[in-house]
Amino acid sequence: MPFIKIEAGKMNKDQKAKLISGFTKLASETLGIGEDHFTILITENDRDNWGVGGKMLSDMLAKGEK
């Protein structure tokens, strides 16, 4: 049974539903496996838990950094 894990920031229920549907459909078409065989896990991460270049992502976004 194929397993797809998505790690991202906070999302609303509609966004999660679209990701689950889209990833399942694309993976099914690409691998030739029925959609009912896929398991999708979305892990939401707080921006305080991400670091980029030695800085917290939440701080970078607050300052408008990229």
Detailed description of the structure:
It is a single chain. By secondary structure, this protein is an alpha+beta fold. The protein has a single domain (3-62), classed as Macrophage Migration Inhibitory Factor. The chain has 2 helices and 4 strands; from the N terminus they run βαβββα. The protein has helices at 13-31, 57-62; strands at residues 3-8, 39-44, 51-52, 55-56. It has a two-stranded parallel ribbon. Strands 3-4 form a two-stranded antiparallel sheet. A hairpin with a 2-residue loop joins β3 and β4. The protein is elongated. The N and C termini lie far apart (38 Å). The mean pLDDT is 94.
Q: How far apart are the first and last residues' alpha carbons, in Å? A: 38 Å
Give the overall form: elongated
- Under CATH at level 1, the class stands as Alpha Beta
Rg from alpha-carbon coordinates: 15 Å
- The number of domains is 1
* Secondary-structure element pattern, one letter each: EHEEEH
CATH architecture classification: 2-Layer Sandwich
Secondary-structure map:
Layout: E1 3-8, H1 13-31, E2 39-44, E3 51-52, E4 55-56, H2 57-62
Parallel strand pairs: 1-2
Antiparallel strand pairs: 3-4
Summarize the structure.
With 66 residues, this protein is an alpha+beta fold.
Which key phrases capture this entry?
66 residues, two-stranded antiparallel sheet, two-stranded parallel sheet, 4 strands, elongated, single chain, Macrophage Migration Inhibitory Factor, 2 helices
